[in-house]
Specification:
Radius of gyration: 16 Å
Structural class: alpha+beta
Strand order of the largest sheet: 1-2
Order of helices and strands: HHEHEHEEH
Strand content: 5-15%
Shape: flat
Oligomer: single chain
Distance between the termini: 37 Å
Largest sheet: 2 strands, parallel
Number of domains: 1
């Protein structure tokens, strides 16, 4: 993600009371309500961009999402502790041109993912 896109998101969502921030939170609440109406479990897995790009300024979005998870009593897996030993390591990237999570990054998360959601998945 280039710096201009980061700057755009900080400008648009940096203030938690901005119209864009409030609309995003409202959309999340609406999504959660639809899932609950149809008895669909909801859980989130949060990949912090800062562990793929240490200069990222976007973790405030992750913190707000964690707060939403707590408020709405959603299971949420924060991957930051998992990636901390590898912060900034390009082996977390899908490729040197693509900072999406690599197979290695997903492997690191897989065990914690099962620990976090196993009982929900096995109960269905």
């Amino acid at each position: 993600m280039d710096q201009s896109n980061n700057s755009y998101r900080v400008a648009r969502f940096g203030n938690p009371n901005s119209p864009s921030s409030l609309a995003a939170v409202d959309s999340m609440h609406h999504f959660i309500e639809i899932c609950r109406k149809f008895d669909i479990p909801v859980g989130l897995v949060l990949f912090s961009e800062s562990y793929f790009r240490p200069d990222s300024k976007l973790d405030f979005l992750l913190e707000r999402t964690l707060q939403l998870c707590q408020t709405r009593k959603l299971r949420c897996l924060d991957t930051r502790p998992i990636f901390l030993p590898h912060q900034g390591d390009i082996k977390l990237w899908a490729s040197r041109l693509d900072p999406h999570p690599s197979a290695f990054a997903n492997l690191l998360v897989a065990e914690r993912l099962m620990e976090t959601f196993r009982d929900i998945w096995l109960a269905r």
